[in-house]
Amino acid sequence: MSFNPDEFENNNPFADPLAEQHQNQPAPVRDSTAPPIDYNNGVQPPTTEEENEGDNQESNLLNESGQLTEAEFRKLIPERFTNKYELKIKLIGVERNKPGNPILKMDAQVKGLPRFRQVKYKDIRRTFNEVVKFNKYLTISNLEVFVPVIPSANTSYPTNGEDETKQLVMVWQEWLDRITSNPILIRDEEFVYFIENDFGYSVINSNRKSSVASGLMRHTLKQFSVPYDPYVELADFRPMIKNAYLICQKLHKILDRHSKTEKQLSIHIFDMSNKLNVLSQFENTHPGMKNMWEKLGKITQIQSDLTLIESINDMGTLGDGVQALIDDFYEIKEALTNRHLIMRELLQAEAQTAAKHAQANKIKSRSSLDPIKVDEALRSLEYATKVEESLNLQVKRISGEMLYERKEVIDFTEKKLQKLVKSFTLHKVEHHRKILKHLETIRLDIRIVDERGGLSRLNRDNLGNLKHNLVQSQSAKGDSWSSRTFRSLEKEEQERENQNDLGESDSSKPFDDDNTNKSSVVDAKNAASLLGIATF
Amino acid sequence: MDNEDLTASHWDDVVSPNEFGSTSNTTATNSLHQSIITPLSNQFNGINIDDPFASPLGFSNQQQRHNDEEEEENDEEEEEELQQSRHQEFSSPSPFYDSNQAEYEQRNELRKEQRKEHKHQLLSELTHGSEDSELMLEAPIIPDDLTNSESLFQDKGSPIKVSKDAKPIIPSSPTKTINFKQGQFKARPRKFSAKLNVQHLSSSSNNQLGPLGGNEGEKSNDRKSPSVSNADSLVKQADAPLYSISRKTDNREPASASTESATVIESGSTIKKKPTVEDEDNPQNNKLDISVGDPMKVGDITTAHIVYTIKTTNKNLESDNFPKNDTTEVTRRYRDFRWIYHQLQNNHPGKIIPPPPTKQTYIGRFNENFIENRRLSLEKMLNKISHIPVLSNDPDFVMFLTSDDFINESRERERLSGSAASTQNSEFLDGARPSGDNESSTGSLTPISTGSTTTGGFMSSLFSISNKINEPDEYFSDQKQYIDDLEYNLKQFYKAIELIGQQRIDLIGILEEVSITVDELASLEISKITSDLLIGFSEIQLKIRDNLDRINLQDQLTLGFTIEEYLRIIGSIKFVFDTRLKIYQQYYNFNQELSKKQNQLDKLQRKYSRAAPQVDKINSLSFEVDKLKQKTSSYEASFNQISETIKLELENFEFERIDDFRNSVEIFIESSIESQKEAIELYETFYERQKLASV
């Protein structure tokens, strides 16, 4: 990952206050202590990057001070080290319902998960609002996971249009794939209810409240300085995500303005086409001119339509995608904040334990022992130690899982942005190509206004053949102005499929780290469907 | 018999150079003026029957004076015939107006042919009539009228000298109405009497040559080019109203020229304009290559302004109208361009002068974009002027291009011509509609409204000549309507383009913001691929922004500029219309007065036809009538003249409009195509480079 804090001086505000004291201790060789990694699953613990810089004293020290070892990973997040469980949900359709609340029709397939009564479920129907509630529940109950947010049912495309449905199916399928590919989320018991319930699902475990502070309390807690974070990646991740969140919000606003301006522009262009039509009607003495104005008016009108479509497409492709990213980033940021809050709790618990310990010691050193007091002190010490222990475990689990999640989020963002930019670019190209085509069709109409021809004639007198230089510059052979050959989307897709097949067959070979990682997390079929959606 | 011979020879003289064969004077003008004059001159004949100087056939002064009654009959006959012919002419252009769908040139051709046909028809008819009348003209001479005229020219001093030195001034500003009056008062009676002198003193065969020869001599004075002499002769026509004959012979020059051009148009079936024909004819025309450059800010804070350097290259050193040096460089400010514009407007009534750009509000005068735009417009204006031979040879224009002491010289010329060009109101230039400060500019050309503005005799005037006003107005009211419509449409078009430009500028700003924001996102380095992608994307947005910026500017410079220019030209056209109306108004007023006086005279004459105790009164009255007649006919002539010029100019305007708009639309389309190609290329390259195909 390029976001490497080691390149900079360690001015980490959360720097380990104890690090200095530990400096003279010998750095333990982690690999020796770590059990062999199960490469058969294709799983690589996210600490690989640490290994890459294994000589680095600091990272080793950090590791010493708080990094998890492979064994701990296995113990803390066993879900990540097994592929026994599998859940696949396929969105087969979106039904129209009340505005803003369509019905999702899904098929589900379960493998190895307990408490499911069937292997296959067909035609699960959930309204969008139900899914949103389910999504919220998942976010609250799985503090260690960056639960993706389901994209809004409102797109920038015209409501109930074909484009909207297409887009919704695409983004929702993507969302379903993301939550079902998460090993921790699919173990959530609510999933059983979500899939097995009849029409009219509501969250069963709705009484489970958020275990972290919210509201004013949360706001106050956020004002405190962030507790020391032993995981540099996660420590740096939150500010990055927060910035990304803010910038994306800004970008979305600008894109929105862009789209509105373009819409306005299309109105103006339409206005001009009207004016041109009036002008052509007015021009009744010279048929050539009349024809020219008419054609120009027609082209202008087409251009206005195309501009309008483009303004929608821009928002539909890039704008909606950025909005989805914004939602995601927000939830990630909140999850990271939650982690901080829990870490703070842990610190408090540690302090509590230390205080209890000190108290117990004080009692022990007293000459006269009050057995009740001793008992109470021991009990409270024990309790405090237990709380600390559990919190410690919780923090460790959250941190460990988030290390995985972080990678996934970065991967996803990368892919998502690529996809967005790709579809945006394709739309733009199409838009400009259409305009170009129309513009080229009326060239002749302007040149034949009268027999003196246009400027293109360059004052040559007897140029009977005006057709030169009037061929369409775009054809199946490619563009006449460049050497580029025709870019076939079908062929590209085929190549992509081939590459995926290749990637899957060679998944054991580390020829592409990201790819193999991905295929481990998302299995091949999932990945194919996930990637295959982006067809145009 | 002598008379007969004389007339015959005269007819030969007059007629033989004319390609139309034997012709009567009135018909010649009529046919040329497309039946506009017909009714008016007709009317004169009717009204001025017993006035010796009103005789349309100047050569037959004596004859006509001898047989008033016969003449009256004759005139009546002629009038009938003319009315017939007018009806025919009326009906003849109608297919042309209706055939909107027909190709423009075709139509043009057709019109020309029709006109020609009608000319022939009319001519044959009328000459027939006049021949008849001539046959009847053998009647006893009445000497009384002769004494009348003698007394008249005795009243005047030695006329020839005065007329000679009066001459050169007159052509410079014949139509500026206020001054025009004065010029006429000075010049016309003298010339008139001078010719009378000649007529009476020399043999009658000299009679016809007299005015012609005199004209030639005058022509040689300022014979810079035939086109100029054309203008001069036209002006002279206006100044010598009573000599219908000599006027006709004079008139033949421009007439034949126009017919020549007409035939050229017909034969070539291509759109050749009159100026091109003249170009070939006259090696003396200025051929100038003008460029306007180096806008420089001069003066202190209070008088700060921009001066432009005008560099003129003389391509035709033969030309007498231009100093013989190769290149001249002068500096002028915007105000001076306006001056030359107005000066040319005044010098060439009826000509559509290429206008300078509009005035600018005080703020933003020194904006770079604005100055460049203005420079371009000014250059275009001068080049356009220099391509019109008449204007290019105009001494004022030459002075404008060459004079080192422009301020004083322009003042001097302005004073000489009395044009007041520097103070001339030109709201239309600045986009505002002409305000109704004078009645004629309120825009209505209908006879009723023009009639209502005249003093007195409204009803009678309405009845007496409304029929005749209608005719010339039809074309012009149509044209005016057309020009107004065109202006409206172009304004709308321009507004639309401006709005689009504004919106695009907004879009450009937003694209830049997008680029910056995406750059920020890239700098977060979520991952290497993401950063690369986003940086690339941000670059693309910047390039697209540049592309949009360019095409926007291009559109403004092609379509926007052309439309703006034409809006200004339309302003010029409107000014020309107004000028014409003013002249018409003058003419109309004088005509009214004339008919009133004429009636008085008639009454008096009838009253004292036998006993003559009030000879003085009659004489003075008839003198007044004469003067009025001169005025009327001079205004009529200049009115006809300007109408004719406007028609030609409007035709040219149409051709140029088609040319210019076709060209700018073509540039517009081509540049749009290129910009689309560039956009496609940018996105395709981006797509390839980021390997988005494999995403």
TrEMBL record, chain A:
Biased composition (Low complexity): 1-14
Keyword Transport: yes
Protein name in UniProt: Vacuolar protein sorting-associated protein 17
Amino acid composition bias (Polar residues), ranges on this chain: 57-66, 477-486
Function in brief: Component of the membrane-associated retromer complex which is essential in endosome-to-Golgi retrograde transport.
PANTHER family per UniProt: VACUOLAR PROTEIN SORTING-ASSOCIATED PROTEIN 17
All copies of domain Sorting nexin/Vps5-like C-terminal, residue ranges: 249-440
Assembly mode: Component of the retromer complex.
Single GO cellular component term: retromer, tubulation complex
Family (UniProt): Belongs to the VPS17 family.
Keyword tags: Protein transport, Transport
Molecular function via GO: phosphatidylinositol-3-phosphate binding; protein transporter activity
Residue span, PX domain: 117-197
Region spans: Disordered: 1-66, 477-522
One example of a Gene Ontology biological process annotation: intracellular protein transport
Comp. bias regions, Basic and acidic residues: 487-499, 506-516
CDD domains per the UniProt record, alphabetical: PX_Vps17p
TrEMBL record, chain B:
An example Gene Ontology biological process: protein retention in Golgi apparatus
Bias (Acidic residues): 69-82
Membrane topology note: Peripheral membrane protein
MF (Gene Ontology): phosphatidylinositol binding
SMART domains: PX
Domain PX: 286-408
Pfam families: PX, Vps5
GO cellular component, one term: endosome
Annotated spans, Disordered: 1-30, 42-131, 148-291, 412-452
Extent of Basic and acidic residues compositional bias: 104-122, 216-225
Localisation: Cytoplasm; Golgi apparatus; Membrane
CDD domains tied to this protein: BAR_Vps5p, PX_Vps5p
Domain of life: Eukaryota
Sequence ranges of Low complexity compositional bias: 440-452
Keywords, comma-separated and alphabetical: Cytoplasm, Golgi apparatus, Membrane, Phosphoprotein, Protein transport, Transport
InterPro entries: AH/BAR_dom_sf, BAR_Vps5, PX_dom, PX_dom_sf, PX_Vps5, Vps5_C
Biased composition (Polar residues): 19-30, 90-103, 172-182, 199-209, 256-270
Chief location bin: cytoplasm
Annotated family: Belongs to the sorting nexin family.
Protein name per Swiss-Prot or TrEMBL: PX domain-containing protein
Species name: Spathaspora passalidarum (strain NRRL Y-27907 / 11-Y1)
Species classification: Eukaryota, Fungi, Dikarya, Ascomycota, Saccharomycotina
